[in-house]
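user: can you give me the structure for this one chain? tokens are fine.
assistant: on it. calling the predictor now.
[tool input]
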Amino acid sequence: MRILNRDVIKYAAMLAMLLNHIANIFLAPGTPLYKLFLNIGYFTAVTMCYFLVEGYEYTRSKEKYGRRLLVFAVLSQIPYSMAFADGKWIELNGFNMLFTLYLCFRLIQVMDQVKVREERFARIAVIFLLAVFCDWFVLAPAFTMLFVRAKDSGKKNSAAFLASMGMFFAVKFLGGIGMVPLGENLADSIYAVLGIGLSGIVILYLYNGRRMEAGRTFSKWFFYLFYPVHLLVLGIIRIWWKC
């Protein structure tokens, strides 16, 4: 039964992201609560990539959409650098997720508008190269490409979510080699992909393809503002608590 609209799923994604950030900033690595909050948060990135692809099709002005992403990415960078600094007040250790989503938006544009194969390949390669310096680096553009190619096909979207789980599992598992015992690494990697799997279940089987009837303007701006505001709050708390 498809009972969830787009905005409800996005609110759930914001909460999942908040828990992930709390784990990364405040909780002791390896504890059960840390792993739970961390892995719940992996619901968010793939969900936002899916809705970015969907939103690209419906937005009235694609350029305004892209500019909003870029503006809020810039606004979010100082809060992001405050929240994830390692023992300092502020530290640049990569670019925030909204920069990644902006690059994903440009990736969708390239796939949609550039017809010359060589030019399209070159532009996509540049986008992936730039994404290396951002949160969720090349994974988010890869998720986005999968959803663009899936279009509205249920089977192809199912395959896209499974492929996303496979890619994330590989990244987590390879990153853990030599760091933790093999069995623990395998278990942690499986645990980590469950957030992406949950996103697939929610979108494929519970999403009704609609938005909220009321409060659409509030929700639109909430989703943009939540990211920098929650990072700023977390950053201030981190500085007060740890520095």
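assistant: here you go. The chain has one domain: 6-242. The first helix runs from residue 6 to 26.
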